[in-house]
């Protein structure tokens, strides 16, 4: 209301200036080959122009208010339901988009560098080249395109919030723990400073590489092992990463089975025309060189043993670590609190000032 009042005040001032110009023209008018409008006619035209300008500016102010309202009034509970509705599809992979939604969230956030404060899910820069075509992100256009249905329904929803929430919803929907999540990521309008390639883990590398990648983000060994437990779901695709196969027998169920299989199965190098990977006795499951590093390194292995023997402990630690991952590089308002239900709560004081009138 105050914004509109200010608009009308400005228009009134403009109207007064127009009237003064009309009066000046009437008193100083000189000879002309064309008929000069009378003072009353000019006054009428000035009033009409001022009125039209008033209506236009009020309409623009109203449109701005509607945009601001849509940006702060996203119903995240409804967003969650719409994401859930997109998960199951018997024609895709193992019947669920859940694993690729988790991978999208992971790769959007996992580019963060704590030293330079660059990367992370804020900005959703994977929408742009060259990040969108980085080798580590092969196949993620499938997830991004799938989620466009939700984005178009909620104009005030940022891509960063959508992608990270989709990962959390997928984990929970597949039987995993509730992930503390909050909104507040702001999309960028272009890759002003592109995220360099190579910030995500290389599955063909060992423990030194793994630590350098995760330490750069600010994680410790325990958190690293907890996060790798997400390999309980999904599979590798030879036309994306070059690797092939699932890690567990239930690739659409979130559990501690990745650790159980890694610790208890016998793994041998697979003989095939592809990159180095390992297979179990059944030849149905696979592990990557990066996965094997978690039982080859004694510090990593002690957490693998803990999580293989205690799924509740794994769920609790994973929820904390994944929530931390989703928030890397995001500057949230101080009063936006995490909510495991997938919504954010703001105090009234965070409202735009004109909303109080």
Extract low-pLDDT stretches.
1-9, 25-37, 61-71, 340-357
Number of strands: 5
Per DSSP, what share of the residues sits in E-state strands of 2 or more residues? under 5%
CATH class of the domain at 207-320: Mainly Alpha
CATH superfamily annotation of the domain at 207-320 = Peroxidase, domain 2
Secondary structural class: mainly alpha
Run of helices and strands: HHHHHHHHEEHEEEHHH
Rg (C-alpha, Å): 29 Å
Give the biggest beta sheet.
3 strands, antiparallel
Query: What is the overall silhouette?
Result: globular
Roughly how much helix do the residues carry, as a percent range? 40-55%
Number of alpha- plus pi-helical segments: 12
The side-by-side strand order for the widest beta sheet comes to 3-4-5
What's the oligomerization state? single chain
Q: How far apart, in Å, are the first and last alpha carbons? A: 6 Å
Would you tell me the overall average pLDDT?
A: 83
Give the name of the CATH architecture of the domain at 207-320: Orthogonal Bundle
Briefly note the CATH topology name of the domain at 207-320.
Peroxidase, domain 2
